[in-house]
């Protein structure tokens, strides 16, 4: 397979999976090519390639250096391509960890995670190179729905002990709360919403927050959820609370009523700054 020089691609296999909560599955993937990803940052996006029914192998898109574009494979073997966040990598054990928010068989990724068995194959593609997931600050505001828990979990577990954090996380119900191994001074507030396609409670919750941030300290916010929710929260923080552009990352991970079209290198994170 020809590919863009800066892209790592590998076929990994399911080693085993863990049911973290009723709506969250951690897939433990393995393969000889896992060490290729050692020069990447946990929490940064990757593309997963899910084979269609009846197809065992992963047919990667081809990189055309002349046009500078990815060429998709024939429809019969073309995998579903979705954007995910890898939760972590253990190169010594040759393991990669990817968490799936599951909601039945209504989407290819959820259905694959629910039914995957040891030995099943998954394609993973990711840009090579380390990157800064978030800037350093004294105070953090982390806001996200179920799709954002992997990246926000990585941030929480990476923050130093001196960091003060308020995290607002929306999940279907109390049984979906997760534990994070963080040493930061974290105040994690869970919001329950069993029907995220019908709207989110994140915006109203954020509007009601009283942030315990000290005057003069630096601050940073990371918001990731459904498009309309992210846009509303971003506007509130930027225009009503006067957060500066550099103090906030705001990303739409999905949009109600639509699905990711599978084009490989299209940017899935729709930056609400746009």
UniProtKB/TrEMBL annotation:
Matching InterPro entries: FAD-bd_FR_type, FNR_nucleotide-bd, SIP_FAD-bd, SIP_fam, SIP_rossman_dom
Q: Which residues form a coiled coil?
A: none
Q: Quote one Gene Ontology molecular function term.
A: oxidoreductase activity
Q: Which Pfam families match?
A: FAD_binding_9 (PF08021), SIP (PF04954)
Family to which the UniProt record says this protein belongs: Belongs to the SIP oxidoreductase family.
What name is this protein filed under? Answer: Siderophore-interacting protein
Q: What species does this protein belong to?
A: Chitinophaga solisilvae
